[in-house]
Recover the amino acids of this structure.
């Protein structure tokens, strides 16, 4: 008999209302994959874009969600890393492998790492996509180091609040851009200064920065005036870089647009920071799986929104 599970499914592209709970076939793990009993699934802007446009998953029906934390339920042939009962978390293959808004999801073993006991499933589900984006940008691409002067835009957001902590752990001197109500939060995360992005000429006082990490997609052009020759401008929205690639080449500034990748090494680096007390995801809101539409519809505070699949 076919086993089933509850999952959030959409049969058409559109607004949050297209997300609905359905009883669907439970997947089975194939070679090199495990079946994860999902405890929590992180929500990301990429989920919302995928819901509206199908950019990453194509034509519905499909199930959203790349961020997962849960327990290994079964292992496919050849799997030696995990056994049923192991607690794991990770980023399902991005962008093709979504499906975490469900009671069970199949994942390649090397997209996952053991969940540290110091993180709840909710916190662990908040970390992979946003944390790996920040890690791959700042640590791996920009090689942020002690004393580097770094600007992070969207510093209170899902990616930004983790990026501030990662750069602070490296010993960087950080300026974060956020809304007025989140400035104290950004300083509390380790920024040396936080600027209200609604202010006039907000980047006006900045010069000779080593790294600009734009997670908002509005600052690439202005960043050219504040990043030094030999520095780097990174964006999570490569489509917004426009002419800055050419201008950067003329000025000796590297310009890089980044798409996050599933990455076990990166996840382990994030776990090391968590265990050293240097990194903690901030949870803006938790909602039960069946309220996925509300998780997409309503604005939430700084940090990450997480769907709770098993309380
Ligand atoms: N390429 C990739 O692989 C990749 C990976 C992850 C994310 N992304 C993209 O990166 C963006 C950020 O992701 P996220 O998860 O961090 O989103 P998020 O949680 O929604 O955070 C966005 C943040 O931007 C801030 N913000 C809004 N308008 C701003 C402005 N004009 N100036 C400065 N800050 C502003 C907000 O700050 P306040 O709350 O203080 O107003 C908010 O906290 C999204 O567009 C996402 O799709 C791309």
């Amino acid at each position: 008999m076919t086993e089933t599970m509850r999952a959030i499914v959409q049969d058409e592209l559109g607004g949050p209302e297209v997300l609905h709970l359905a009883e669907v076939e439970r997947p089975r793990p194939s070679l090199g994959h495990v079946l994860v009993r999902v405890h929590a699934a992180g929500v990301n802007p990429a989920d919302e874009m995928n819901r509206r446009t199908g950019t990453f998953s194509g034509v519905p029906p499909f199930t959203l969600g790349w961020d997962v934390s849960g327990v290994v339920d079964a292992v496919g042939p050849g799997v030696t890393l995990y056994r049923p009962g192991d607690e794991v978390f990770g980023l399902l293959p991005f962008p093709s492998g979504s499906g975490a808004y469900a009671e069970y999801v199949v994942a390649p073993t090397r997209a996952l790492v053991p969940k540290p006991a110091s993180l709840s499933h909710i916190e662990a589900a908040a970390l992979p996509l946003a944390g790996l984006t920040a890690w791959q940008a700042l640590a791996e691409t920009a090689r942020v180091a002690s004393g580097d002067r770094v600007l992070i835009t969207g510093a209170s957001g899902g990616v930004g609040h983790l990026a501030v902590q990662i750069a602070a752990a490296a010993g960087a001197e950080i300026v974060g851009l956020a809304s007025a109500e989140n400035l104290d939060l950004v300083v509390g995360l380790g920024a040396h200064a936080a600027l209200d992005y609604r202010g006039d000429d907000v980047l006006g006082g900045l010069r000779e920065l080593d790294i600009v990490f734009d997670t908002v997609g509005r600052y690439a052009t202005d960043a050219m005036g504040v990043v030094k020759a030999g520095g780097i401008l990174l964006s999570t929205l490569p489509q917004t870089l426009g002419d800055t690639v050419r201008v950067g080449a003329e000025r000796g500034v590297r310009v890089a647009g980044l798409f996050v990748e599933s990455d076990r090494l990166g996840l382990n680096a994030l776990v090391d920071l968590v265990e050293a007390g240097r990194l903690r995801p901030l949870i803006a809101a938790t909602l039960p799986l069946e309220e996925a539409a509300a998780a997409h519809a309503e604005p939430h505070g700084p940090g990450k929104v997480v769907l709770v699949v098993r309380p």
